[in-house]
């Protein structure tokens, strides 16, 4: 495996995008109705960057992650990976491209086949990609298991049920890394883990990112977790992006009322910080019948007639910070 | 504590038989909750916090062995007949579980489940019970409560279902509400709403509450006192401000330090706790946290520290090498 140096400067989206998503739409039928899971999302991720994607359950963040990898084919829109449009690729071309991208799921135990030995699970991507030399495979498996902090000799012959959730997530990360990918979608990788284990896995992801020069799309509902690992953060609500910006800036001066609400709702582990008085109201509407105009308007204290009539477009409010709101906070 | 003691858990242990030997889920726990007060019980999965709540409610699995004493409102719950216990539970001792989908009956309407509880415990007639149900649903913030009565749990969102579960728990004006991870299955915005709802109803009814959670952020702003559990034992117990400001137990410190903070800069490495909790079927001779503790010395591996008092009687910790106050908290 190659050791690559990370770009030292904070990568910006304008730099060298590895991934570019243009006006992505994902809709799927439920009975006679249509779920508008992702409705016209555009974003870029620079090489070596981590983009955090946050939102409540059902906002379409996982669907977006899968549509990027073509695990669910988008209804329309473009996904450019290293300049090539994945949505136009099929068959072998797409399979070859997939070696460069990987996915890590929320439930590490469920994403490992309970009947297969860890050594075989981690080697599987090598087998699929045609590495026929079994000694070479074993060497790579040992190398990657050590990299994620497991002792290969104690691990390869055992079955997933013999491991805790945190260890299983390490195994999933090893499997994702073994083909030396450039881009990994992490879909809620730590939300099933306990606090003490969560920190271990977050640190491991950061370490692996630096060591293997990865670019990450980090999907989570926990803003503090997202902030810990992301260079930039995108906030999603009911299928649309509300706000995108550099992590520090977005948390220090959120421009979208929804971003502010999410930040205020986080319980702070400090008894001197009283829970926010401005309690968020209500629940997100159904993505089957999203509200007209701005989709957040039904819960927004600033909403007016314009928000009902006009869909707000993403526009810059500060360098690198984009917001889709008619009445932004900054 | 100035308030009258409502619940006292005295030397309670719970053992569960497993194929690999007995699992000591709760290990000699002592706790008290005053009337109208909130106790937070914090710990990671498998630390015994849920088994402790089930021991209080006498809802343990059949094979579990319980020892010790649970005094609630002047009665020893372990000595009560099943019939008297059943009358107590749901009436003065109520519970809200983590997953409102499994705690509500999926084939009964919301109305049936609420009205049933009211009729059973308060012996109200159907019309009065129905009227009360509508009031309760409105009180927990459910819009159009009359229409909800005829709906089934699956027709409601997770947040709404948890509101219904809370309405049922509150219906008979309990003296103590045990909320076992009530917001873990919910989104952060809904979590804030539910926690506010619980706090508001608690104040209004002067009800005591045990808030069980793995999230130190949840207990910080919303409890009077906190007990931190690790491997079945209470390892630190203190009034909430003291626990966060003057923690003595290294596990508490490590747990707090491992939390990603919203005010930290991105890419700050987290002081993770190495290793993982011990196997509960193979109890350690010494302090259960010693294999992961950065302060551990030989004595910690050989001997179990007892809960000892810090500067006040309310603040107790189980550690031979407590964190010195003034040395500064955080790793």
Summarize the structure.
The complex is a heterodimer of chains A (330) and B (331). With 330 residues, chain A is of the alpha/beta class.
Secondary-structure map:
The complex is a heterodimer of chains A (330) and B (331).
Chain A: E1 17-30, E2 33-46, E3 50-54, H1 61-68, E4 76-81, E5 84-85, H2 91-98, E6 101-104, H3 118-128, H4 134-147, H5 152-155, H6 165-177, E7 183-187, H7 195-212, E8 215-220, H8 223-229, E9 232-237, E10 240-246, H9 247-252, H10 257-265, H11 305-309, E11 315-318, E12 321-323
Parallel strand pairs in A: 3-8, 3-9, 6-7, 7-8
Antiparallel strand pairs in A: 1-2, 1-4, 4-5, 9-10, 10-12, 11-12
Chain B: E1 5-18, E2 21-34, E3 38-42, H1 49-57, E4 65-72, E5 75-76, H2 82-88, E6 93-96, H3 100-103, H4 110-122, H5 126-139, H6 145-148, H7 158-170, E7 176-180, H8 188-205, E8 208-213, H9 216-220, E9 225-230, E10 233-239, H10 240-245, H11 250-257, H12 298-302, E11 308-309, E12 316-317
Parallel strand pairs in B: 3-8, 3-9, 6-7, 7-8
Antiparallel strand pairs in B: 1-2, 1-4, 4-5, 9-10, 10-12, 11-12
Helix pairs in contact in B: 4-5, 5-7, 7-8
